[in-house]
Amino acid sequence: MYEPDRLYEEVAFVAYHFGWSHEAVLNMPHWERQRWCTEISEINDRMNETPSDRGHGHRGGGGRGRRRDDAGGGVVLRNPPESG
After folding, report:
1. How does pLDDT run across 44-61, given as a tens digit for each residue?
2. Which stretch of DSSP H or E encloses residue 46?
3. Which of 11, 20, 51, 67 is the most exposed place for a label (fewest CB within 10 A)?
4. Inter-CA distances, 35 with 44, 51, 69, Å
């Protein structure tokens, strides 16, 4: 069985970043939600790169790092929820 906390985390992550409905995200197979979480995180990594990060292969290593976005719009998740 899939852990409810993990499910909420994935649904919130994808729905927030793409504006998709709760129902649409919840009805996705687990593997697809995880894939979208990974894709969103890679987009966030690219958007959060500083000029000194560019060209150094920076890709937000392990853990669920957080960084303030450059536009001052708050904290942006850099990595998807931990696999479990």
Report:
1. 888 888 777 666 554 444
2. helix 30-48
3. 51
4. 14, 27, 23
